[in-house]
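Go through this pair.

…
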Amino acid sequence: MKLYKIFFWTSTTIIALFEGVMPALTFRTEMAKEGIKHLGYPLYFGDALAAFKVLGVLALMIPQVPKRIKEWAYAGFAFDFIFASISYFAVEGVVFFSFFPYIFLGILAVSYIYYHKMND
């Protein structure tokens, strides 16, 4: 059980840093705005995405959050990573950034699996 907690908290913390802290600190920077614009999305989409990422991270990190909410957060992050990859493929073609989100999808899967191993 201790090993499950280590795997869960390590993978969840990586997701929290990448999906919660980074967007919260950088979503208003010129680089972030340019990235959203480059992929063909309106600027307000970046604001909404950052807000939902922070809320999702809070749902994953706070133990008292109901399981159903956590499931939605996991699903939201999975869609985020998959659609980020699709966006890069559509705009950039086959480049590293097209595959990069799948690395974090794998880390998210570890978090999800060990969340259920700890709570079932």
The helical segments are 2-26, 30-38, 43-61, 67-92, 96-119. The radius of gyration is 15 Å. The CA atoms of residues 62 and 70 lie 9 Å apart.
